[in-house]
Amino acid sequence: MKKHNFSAGPCILYPEVIKGASEAINNFKEMDLSLLEISHRDKNFVDVMEEVRELSKEIMALEDDFEVLFLQGGASLQFCMTPYNFMKKNGVAGYSITGTWAKKAAKEGSLFGQVIEVGSSAEENFNYIPKKLKITKNMDYLHLTSNNTIVGTQIKDFPNTDIPLVCDMSSDIFSRQINFNQFSLIYAGAQKNIGPAGTTLVAVRKSALGKTARDIPSMLDYEKHIKSDSMFNTPPVFSVYTCLLTLRALKHNGGLSIIEEQNKLKANHLYKEIERNELFEGVAKKEDRSSMNVCFLLKDESLKEKFDKLCSEAGIVGINGHRSVGGYRASIYNALPFESVRILTEVMNHLD
Ligand SMILES: *Cc1c(COP(=O)(O)O)cnc(C)c1O
């Protein structure tokens, strides 16, 4: 039987996605060739790239001004592509420091100009989302991280501002309904809610580009990638195709409104047990806690061995917390079934 996979990323995918991806490795679109051995310029793959870009736009209900790209280099490369394409020479950008990833993004940004911390929860180990951000008019953009994968906090209300909003949505994209059109740039490493590792979704407003007066290396230039329909160089074909299968499944299952409901049910079930069970405590402040990464601690560390053993016997894997936080982290991404959450809470319930 398959394990209950709570891994933070790369992570669980829908069974039909694994099946479709395996089929494509054996025989892609009845070509009698593997997806792994055909040219990315073959019409059969060009169609995949077109469909995955269109479908992403459709699911997020993005305005025509947006282009969706599937790039390489992970979300981490976006930490530098963002300032390259959005920060003017000698420019200023605001960063909300909500966790390790946000810190890394800000560090890269500071190589290009002045980075201002508009808010930070570092002093509380990032267990909440700073609300009153110190935004100033001179900022070229404001960088946010919608979901903080390591501590398990999530932005529920995005700031209302005229400054272009940039958002790292690596760990909660396609998990809930939000107004995606309020952003100028959205990026997300695929391996947490879209597909396998190897590609990064970027949704960018065309009208926001070309304003920095910088010479941008081709591979880091969104405009170049847009002009070549996300095929400026050889794309990671397997990863992109598997993302397409995931997005098709997401649409087929009812899209963001349905998945949001399912994700809420899973998260509520698990948080309820953490609150009820005296042996555990949650890491994130209640109002900011994530519906994707649920972080919790055992109050009595001496029970760790027993709990780990019970989890392992129940087929639960991937719930160790990030090494910087310790404790446990149950990542309950889109593809994780409610049943897995039910099993986990049952094990927690039976611990004492
Ligand atoms: C995982 C993660 C990243 C890093 O993604 P890579 O694709 O490994 O570069 C960045 N930001 C957030 C919020 C993440 O969860």
Can you tell me about this structure?
With 352 residues, this protein is of the alpha/beta class. The protein folds into 2 domains: 4-12 and 255-350, Aspartate Aminotransferase, domain 1 (Alpha-Beta Complex), CATH 3.90.1150.10; 15-252, 3-Layer(aba) Sandwich (Aspartate Aminotransferase, domain 2). The protein is 34% helix and 17% strand. It is built from 9 helices and 14 strands. The protein has helices at 15-26, 43-60, 74-86, 100-109, 222-227, 237-252, 255-276, 304-313, 338-349; strands at residues 4-5, 66-71, 92-97, 114-120, 141-145, 147-148, 153-154, 165-168, 185-189, 200-205, 280-282, 293-298, 316-317, 328-331. Strands 2-10-9-8-5-3-4 form a 7-stranded mixed beta sheet, with helices on both faces. The chain has a 3-stranded antiparallel beta sheet with strand order 11-12-14, covered by helices on one side. Strands 1-13 form a two-stranded parallel sheet. A hairpin with a 4-residue loop joins strand 6 (147-148) and strand 7. The longest helix has 22 residues, at 255-276. The two termini are 27 Å apart. It binds pyridoxal-5'-phosphate. Pyridoxal-5'-phosphate (PLP) is lined by residues 9, 74-76, 101, 145, 149, 168, 170-171, 189, 192.
Share in β-strands: 15-25%
Helix content: 25-40%
Tell me the CATH topology of the largest domain: Aspartate Aminotransferase, domain 2
**Largest sheet strand order:** 2-10-9-8-5-3-4
CATH architecture of the largest domain: 3-Layer(aba) Sandwich
Net shape: globular
Total of domains:
2
CATH class of the largest domain: Alpha Beta
Q: Care to count the β-strands?
A: 14
CATH superfamily of the largest domain: Type I PLP-dependent aspartate aminotransferase-like (Major domain)
What Rg is obtained from the alpha carbons, in whole angstroms? Answer: 21 Å
Question: Secondary-structure element sequence?
Answer: EHHEHEHEEEEEEEHHHEEHEEH
Q: What's the average pLDDT?
A: 97
- Counting DSSP H or I runs of 4 or more residues, the number of helices is 9
The class by helix and strand makeup works out as: alpha/beta
Hetero groups in this structure are: pyridoxal-5'-phosphate
Low-confidence stretches: none
Distance between the termini: 27 Å
Biggest beta-sheet profile = 7 strands, mixed
